[in-house]
Specification:
Layout lengths: L12 H9 L3 H7 L7 H13 L2 H4 L4 E7 L9 E8 L2 E5 L8 E5 L1 H8 L5 H6 L3 E5 L1 H6 L10
Parallel strand pairs: 1-4
Antiparallel strand pairs: 1-2, 2-3, 4-5
C-alpha cells in the first residue's frame, strides 16, 4: 500500500476515495483490523452530515445502523448510527437498540459504499451486505448522500 493509513482520517473525501480504489480488499481488511479501525470509520461517518442531500430525503425520518465486522477477536464489530430527521442528518455517538434498518458488512464493502466504488444493491444480492429491518429505507439510503468518487 502506498499511502500511510494514519493520514486517512485527515484526507478529503475525494483523496480517500482515490486511495481506497487503489487498495485490494485484503489491504483494506488488514488496515481495518489495526489501530485505524476506529479513526477511519469515525472520519467517514463524521462527513455524512455535510454530504447529506436534504432535497432527496424529503420527509424521511429514519435511524440506520451500520455494523462493520472484521475487527480483532476482542472487538469483532463496530456499530455506527445515522439519524435522518426533519431534513437533517446526524450521527449518534451511542447507537440504540432500535433502528429502522440495520446493515452489516465487512470493511471492504463498507469502504466500497463510502467511496462510490460498490453498488449497494449488488452487494446485498451477493450476500456481502446483510440487511435487517425496512428494506426500502436501506435501499434509499445511498441516494441521500453526495458520495465522493475516485
Amino acid at each position: 500500500m502506498d499511502s500511510d493509513p494514519s493520514t486517512f482520517e485527515s484526507m478529503t473525501p475525494q483523496e480517500f476515495a482515490r486511495t481506497v480504489k487503489a487498495m485490494s480488499d485484503n489491504e483494506i481488511a488488514e488496515v481495518m483490523r489495526g489501530e485505524h479501525r476506529v479513526p477511519i470509520p469515525d472520519a467517514i461517518f463524521g462527513r455524512f452530515p455535510e454530504l447529506f442531500r436534504a432535497d432527496k430525503a424529503g420527509a424521511l425520518s429514519a435511524v440506520i445502523q451500520f455494523r462493520i465486522t472484521g475487527g480483532p477477536d476482542d472487538h469483532p464489530h463496530d456499530t455506527y448510527e445515522v439519524v435522518i430527521d426533519d431534513g437533517a442528518c446526524s450521527i449518534s455517538d451511542a447507537p440504540g437498540e432500535q433502528s429502522d434498518a440495520s446493515l452489516m458488512m465487512a470493511p471492504p464493502e463498507f469502504t466500497k459504499i463510502a467511496t462510490g466504488r460498490g453498488n449497494p444493491t449488488m452487494l446485498v444480492m451477493r450476500g456481502k451486505i446483510k440487511v435487517k429491518g425496512d428494506i426500502a429505507v436501506a435501499a434509499k439510503f445511498p441516494t441521500l448522500f453526495d458520495i465522493p468518487k475516485a
